[in-house]
Every structure is written in C-alpha cells, then in structure tokens.
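Shipment paperwork, digital attachment
Item: protein structure file
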Amino acid sequence: MAALRVFVDANVLYSRTLRDWLCLLQLGAPGEIYTVYWSEHVLAETIYHLLKKHPEWRGAKITAIRDRITGVFEGGRVEDFTVDGSFPGTDLDDQHVHAAALACSADIVLSDDGGFTITGDAAEQLPYEVYRPDEFFVLVEDSAPDRVAEVTRCQTLYWRGRSPDGRADLATALIDAACPAFAERVRAHQSQLSLPPAD
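Attachment content:
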C-alpha cells in the first residue's frame, strides 16, 4: 500500500486512545504507511473540547498535548484552504474539514463524526474516502501488521508500568473508543508478546 494522505478530524484527536495510536503508528514509520494532515481549525476545536471537558487541567497539560500533535505531525499542517460551499454533507460545521482535505489532496478523511456521512453519488464524486477510526486502524494493520505489533508492545509496556495490577488492557480502551475490530487485532498481538515480569 502506498503511503496515504490522511486528514484528521478533531473528534479523533480529542480521544486520548485514538490520538496515541495515530501518533505512535506514524512515528515508527514516518511517511511509509500514512501521513497525517491537520489544520489550525481542527486543532483549535480539539483543544476547545478538551478544555470544556477538563476545565481543571493545568496549562502545561494542554500545551503538551498540542505540542505532541504538532510535533508528531510536523509538516502536515494545512495552512490555507477555502470554504466554498462545495461540501455535500449535511453538517455545515464540517465544511472546513472538507475544504482542508481538498487543499492537501487527502486520500482519507479520518473522522469519528456520525454527521460526516456522505453517501451515494456525492460520495463517489469526492476525491477522498471517509473512514471511521476502527476501519482505518484495521486497514493499517492489514498492510503493516509488524508495525501494529511493535506499537502494541510499546503501549503494553507503558500502560503496564502505570497500572496498579500490572495489566495493560489495550483492547478495552479501544472498544471504549469505538474500535472493536482493531481491539481484536491488538488483543491477538498482545497474546504473542513475550515480556519481562512486571515490577
């Protein structure tokens, strides 16, 4: 599979689980599987909703999240685009996503927004496909299972070290993030891991 150009919507970056997997999969093989594109509109929407849910967060926490997104996906910022009314969907709030996806020649718009649904002739006319995170991560695992296995190992070690019982239940976090099919792939990779005993 050629490297995909993926424009990411704010609802994907909002989720810690989805954001971590998206970042880690790209970090290990930059430009090989996919390249994530984003806009300041998307980033502002992500930060707004994170702060709305967590008004108690310190400034350093939100700064770290923003810096991680812009650092991992450096070079993917879509700096200019025109909202021209051509978006065929029903949610006008998604016009900026469509416009930025066109501007960066995206192959995929990665969105967890049920309102970002385009069907029939309108979908066939678009130069990109809309993927939900579960579909997208399964696609990545189909093309690069070794990469997913490596990220699974890293995630397992990370979360095992932070869990009181030394367990890293990656699958449940993915199911909670509406990625049940990918969760099963990750569970299968975890079952093959040979790890040192937890501290």
